[in-house]
Amino acid sequence: MSNNIYLKKGLDIPIKGAAAQTTKKVIVPDVVAIKPTDFRGLVPKLLVREGDKVLAGTPVLADKMSQNILFTSPVSGTVAEVVRGEKRKLLEVRIKADAEQEYVDFGVKRVADMTAEQIKEALLASGLWPALTQRPYGIIANPEIKPKAIFVSAFTTAPLAANPEFALVDEFANIQTAVNALGKLVNGRVHFSFNAETYSGSPFHKLENISVHTFTGKHPAGNVGVQIHHICPIRKGETVWTVSLTMLAAIGKLFNTGKVDLRRKIAVTGPKVNNPAYVEGYPGISMKDIREFYGNPAELRFVSGDVLTGTNVGAEGFLGFHDNQITILEEGDKYELLGWAKPCRPKLFSASRTYFSWLTPNKKYDMDTNLHGGPRAFVVNDVYGKVLPMDLYPVYLLKACLANDIDNMEKFGIYEVLEEDFALCEYVCPSKIDIQQIITDGIALMMKEMC
């Protein structure tokens, strides 16, 4: 085992609604959605029409910029609806699922006997290539290049996140197969990061052909971007790939069974969830498929992912491609008279010790989406630095993004970060600034000017 990396900075959000480690329901979906918006920079090309019959693994979309990158259906069924937005932007392809699933047969393959090119072709044809994320910028990996390393976070510290050891307890063999396959696509190594406290008890520490790293610390210690920063920082001109354990399991199943099987355990979490637990389902399932977990949807926010970095999809929305967590919490549309002036607010958590929550460190809070104030002047302070365990100057990077100053964006670390790395900065921000959107805009500018 490698030396442990101890992170002193960070913050764990004490929110109610962690999922009990039990699978409450196996979802047989009515409709699933494939969403191009789940992939940064994707210009989708539609390959099917309404009424077409598809199998699990049938190509539905392609990337116009690289048409060998395909997006395949997670289920078998019939294309029910193609949803478009402004200027006919493609938002969703909805597929009405069959009761009994049928799969495209890609053939069982022995990874040890395959070349790197054969592995790449298998991932591209099956639609699992988009599971690989390329840094800088968090885009779909470019199949024409070899990265200097591949990184996997084998633990998570995000609020109420799914426990990977429970969610993937039966997937060890598939994950090992995926590691063996991806190891042939990289110039360097496949790096796995573990929680130092649970490393010895994790089934994944027995994986072979990986470089092991352990971390101790609060959130965002489980973010793969933070781990890369401390293991092998990304410099200008360098490329690394990342992939989640969930998608590693799907890649392994492709080679071991010949099928695109994206079934996963999904944590249904949040303060407004009745009896939080896990369900088994697919990416793209509807929030309606978990109706028994919540009350009046008009009063709730439905987040695909965790509360810090997830997407607000609404009661009619669908789970994202990369997500294995749904968070439901109350909309913050209720106001408290002179709330800012009350010295004692025992029902609220404060990261800055404004209230007395620091006296009850084990208490969990019924949080909602209220910002408790509006946007204010963006001033230089050390608040962000207390929760960002990276050797960066976050305020200067954010101001460089606001000023569209590419030179300073490069200087202050734009190649190393994604929105999720700044999510805690946004949470503790005294100015109530949408920091993640600033990073999004900065990355968009870099992609436009540098790619």
How would you characterize this protein structure?
The protein is α/β, with parallel strands linked by helices. It has nine helices and 20 strands. Strands 1-14-13-12-15-10-11 form a seven-stranded mixed sheet, covered by helices on one side. The protein has a six-stranded mixed sheet with strand order 2-17-16-20-18-19, with no helix packed on it. α3 packs across α5. The radius of gyration is 22 Å and the shape is globular. The two termini are 38 Å apart.
> For this entry, what is the oligomeric state of its chains?
single chain
Report on the biggest sheet.
7 strands, mixed
The number of helical segments is 9
Helix content: 10-25%
Output the structural class.
alpha/beta
Q: Roughly how many Å apart are the termini?
A: 38 Å
- Roughly what fraction of the amino acids lie in strands? 15-25%
What is the global morphology?
Answer: globular
- Return residue spans where pLDDT drops below 50 for at least 5 consecutive residues: none
Which strands sit side by side, in order, in the main sheet? 1-14-13-12-15-10-11
Average predicted confidence as pLDDT: 94
Secondary structure tally: strands: 20
SSE arrangement, N to C: EEEEEEEEEHEEEHHEEHEHEEEEEHHHH
